[in-house]
Amino acid sequence: MPFLVIQICVLLMLLVVFTQFIRRMMVHVRGPTSFESLRTIKGIVCPTFRAACQELNLLENDTHWDTTIAEAIISASPSQIRTLFAIIISTYFPSNPRDLCNKYKDNMSEDILHRIRVSSRNSDLEVNEEILTLDRRYVLPHVRQFVS
User: Fold this and answer.
1) Which tens digit of pLDDT belongs to each residue from 22-57?
2) Distance from the CA of 45 to the CA of which of 16, 75, 116, 119 falls in 20 to 30 A?
């Protein structure tokens, strides 16, 4: 169910992460005169604010969040893992949320695939374009509760 988890990642990242990178840059770059000058590190213009933050070593290692989610998988339901993931990326701003998302997407979406298999009465159902389209009705309400 890669599309399901990527939707969650993208929606939350668009809301909070972009501004977080700019905030970090504003604290560490002296006297920027434009957004481009804010992204300029050692005379080189970085393509994104995230890249500029990485160049200045302002982003933390995500090992702690990786371990947290890995431990949660042992005893938590997929819904609880999605909730944990949403809290991590919306509150703590890991440096590479897409990697975390891709690593744990199957664990976070097992219940949704199961629901679709039960409702379609097809236990052999695998992920395809039709299922990815159905995911939106399960994902968006879950994301809205963290954004609101």
Assistant:
1) 888 888 888 888 889 889 988 999 998 888 888 888
2) 16
Helix (H, G, I), strand (E, B) or coil at 42: coil
Residue 89 DSSP code: I
Q: Which residue has the tokens 């590479």?
A: 96
Token reading at 93: 């701003």
Residue 120 tokens read as 């379609």
Q: Where are the beta strands (DSSP E) in 14-148?
A: 40-41, 44-45
Query: Cβ(146)–Cβ(14) under 8 Å?
Result: no
Cα gap 77→144, rounded to integer Å = 19
Q: Which two tokens stand for residue 126?
A: 């695998």
